[in-house]
Write a structure and sequence with these properties.
heterodimer; A: alpha/beta; eight-stranded parallel beta barrel
Chain lengths: 415, 274
Amino acid sequence: MSDMDQVAVFSWHFMPWPYLDENFDRDHESGWITVPNSLFDRKKAVGLYQEYLDELAAADDLGFDGVVLNEHHQNIYGIMPAPNLLAAALTQTTKKCKLVVLGNLLPLNFRPLRVAEEYAMLDCMSNGRVVAGFAPGGGHESYSYSYSMPLARERFWEGVDLIVQAWTKPGPTSFEGKHYSMRYVNPWPQPLQTPHPPIWIPGSNSVETMYEVARRDFCYFLSTRGKLSGAKRSARRFGEVVGEIGKDFHPRQMGLLFSVYVAETDEAAREESGEAVFYFTRNCLKGHQRRKGRRLTMAPGGLSPSSWQLYLENSVVGAKMLGDAEDWKDIDEMGSIFVGSPDTVFDKLWEFVSEADIGNLLIQFHIGNLSKEKTLKSQQLFAEKVLPRLRAESKKLFTRKFGRKTIDAEAVVTA
Amino acid sequence: MTTRIVDVRGKKVELLESGSGEPVLYLHDMWDLHTAQGGMFPFHEQLAAKFKLMAPAHPGCGESDSIKSIADMDDLAFHYLDVLDALNLSSAAIVGVGLGGWLGVEIAVRNPERVSRLALVGAAGLQMPGAQVADIFMYSQHRDGGVMRDLRNLLFGDADGALANSIVPDGRTNIPDEVRRYKSLTLAGRVGWEPPYLHNRKLLGRLHRVACPALLIWGEEDRFVPLANGRAYAQNLPKATLKTLPGCGHSAILEAPEQCMDWIAPFLKTGALG
């Protein structure tokens, strides 16, 4: 069990397709859903998953709190439609770190009971290291799998509750919901962690989601990348929600994603990572966090009409997004990809910890088409020069600001 | 034109009414009154000049309450049987457009005695081989920071014309209309997103149950609900005729309101299929 009084730092891999040529942006409107899979080169795919899994296993050796996988479909951003398969592989190559799957997309194709079973298997295989993420999916997923976004939102929480029941109520029980009806809820195996593995839920600032998360003592992962100001707003709102239902907020209930490349100096970091960073923004974010091309991140009915109105009032149509970055100045202004020396990267991340109370830092080290060699070098330098400082400084800060305590979301391994 | 709130089994339904004479129940589409803008388009004004137009907003659209229990077209059709009761319409002449056209057919196969005429324009509900209903949900998302041409192309014969650009402009229009459209897509998403997409595989085999005459109007360039689906309705409804509009897209009532009225008005009056 990790120390709750300091930040937790994770290595997140998206597993992108790294072999697009320089004409991809010119020739294709999106990296998602309709991007022709004739671009998938079978010969080049040999060994790719192994390379990516090696990079995550290295994070365990370097002492990261955990590694993170997630689920996306029919795209070049992440060729990881079945993250539990990769988590299973990592149970065999990692020893200490948490295995975070963020998350299984509940509305997709099978019943939530299957997700309860797979996470329980992974928890047994990893000796209680699973962090179970559940996600309702966004535009990409609903278009990709032809499921109704407005209905998915309702199904999602029912599915989550079914899974928690499967893990906590001695079976056999039954479940009668509006969307799911299971005569026998009695999964073998059960997860090792009791009452169940920690549960993380991604959200994009909808207050409805924050309430559901806080009520259940889950961890809220802010799925929208963004600047410090946005993260501060979200964390404050989530903290208020936690307070409103009579609980105490702790930074470890909140997570955020960043991309990082560390080298000895700022200049060297830019020089070494430039191609990969812009490969990521131009290609992988096309169809997602990019103005150019077809934007598929949102789907109608994903928000309530009042939340949609709020979004319209607070956003500018056609505004530049992370994927539209043209140079390093743009990258710096977007405030989500940090490239530089250990000091530079520490300073950037520390703002989010100290000012926005973000206690889980989820860091993408493999960016775009970055080589294995560079990914491992950057990740290692981070582990040596940045990670210890983040832990030491946050320990002082959290103890002072939030007191020494554990939160309910962190389950205890008893097996 | 007046709007009022009607109570339908404890849920608020916004009802737009205009004109006098024989009542006509109008079932709206996704870019239509209640959904693209608050008031009527010229087609509805022309309809109201000859009939008593009664146009409820679908659940969650306009000022109508959203209804959580509505999760497919079957639920929506049963909701409208309650609406017919609330409006004291023992038998209604229905004009249904697009999504509303599909709804009209679903009501008529269930309770044929409640429908006296069925005028359908670009009605969803069927999907014939090679005539896939287009992905309106994905194509309602903009390109290049606000370009909506793909959606205009599905909805209008001329995607670049003034009419298409006024109903589906690039960028952001005004927030109330944007929210209307979002609510419209949300309702359509509840009843028509999951496979089968905006159609009902069982409907074709049920069309023989429709007792009333049916007039079908279709834009020959309808790229949202292709014309082959209109031909299938015409062939499988017991008493039906199909009129097509060259050069016209899915939004026939907006693109060719006079021509539509020239067919619809005498049909509603006499039931005769010319």
